[in-house]
Specification:
This protein is mostly beta strands. The protein contains 1 helix and 10 strands; from the N terminus they run H-E-E-E-E-E-E-E-E-E-E.
């Protein structure tokens, strides 16, 4: 009977997010889209949006990552660490990372790094679209190969 109570308590706590692991090694999906994702909202940006496959009890969990830009090379270092929000937006959803990309028309290399693995892509930006080409993929995948720039 005590084992059953323990299992019930752990299940309830995990469902509430209290026992969530601080690391996530699930596959990641990403998109690169044009739109108003940052302040000021009336300014259009090109945004990188990365999401975990794992679903969390709050839709505003963050995936700790950093973006490095050097010329036409973009690198996203993903720690895998999940950051819990101070206030939970109560809807199930993935942890995410969003960054503004300083991209003009042209072709860029994009790398994602996590735990010793590196995924590589090409990103081609035109006036109307953003195209993703996969070179090497271990833990990430684009949600589409072509995104509208609007």
């Amino acid at each position: 009977m005590n084992t059953l109570r323990l299992v019930a308590v752990v299940t309830i706590l995990a469902g509430c997010g209290i026992l969530d692991s601080s690391r996530d090694s699930s596959p990641l999906s990403f998109s690169i889209v044009g739109g108003s994702y940052f302040d000021p909202p009336e300014v259009h940006h090109i945004a990188l949006i990365v999401q975990t496959e794992t679903q969390y009890p709050c839709m505003n969990y963050l995936l700790e990552s950093s973006l490095g830009v050097a010329g036409s090379s973009l690198r996203v270092d993903v720690s895998g660490r999940i950051l819990k929000p101070n206030a939970c937006l109560t809807a199930v959803g993935p942890a995410h990372y969003t960054a503004a990309l300083p991209l003009d028309n042209g072709t860029y290399s994009l790398e994602f790094r996590r735990g010793g693995l590196t995924d590589r892509y090409t990103v081609t930006v035109t006036t109307s679209a953003i195209e993703i080409g996969t070179i090497e993929s271990h833990f990430t995948h684009p949600t589409a190969s072509r995104f509208s720039r609007d």
